[in-house]
Amino acid sequence: MLLDLWRDVDIPPLWLGLCLALVWKLGQVMPMAFPFEPIIGAALILIGLVLMGAALIQMLLHRTTFIPRRDPHALVTGGVFSLSRNPIYLGDALVLAGAALWWNAPYALALVPVFMWFLTWRYIRGEEATIAAHFGEEYAAYRSRVRRWI
Question: Where does this protein reside within or beyond the cell (predicted)?
């Protein structure tokens, strides 16, 4: 029962939320403002949210899941998925980077590659194996054309 509950809450938005809380706290404890940081931060957050929204819409239109560890019903390769195999996770990383700048915590940008590594380790590698099992050569061809992140 506890394992099932953990599986239900162990999703990327949880980890993004925890990282955002850490970045916010760092910005409160050790603020370091630079010119244009809030503007650049807001732009990164907006780009990340648009990327996530576009990917979500594409997945819904293809009637496939966007929830990690669920079996996909379609391989989405167009639109934002032609830029990145993981546009939602890329959007998460952009939101995190943008928040670090928005909240005057540029040193927290060091958390972004750690977050990306964690997502790759925790979710992406398993998702890629599942997608490969479902879509075989079609996924292999897509994978050879489009990078994991950007």
Answer: Endomembrane system
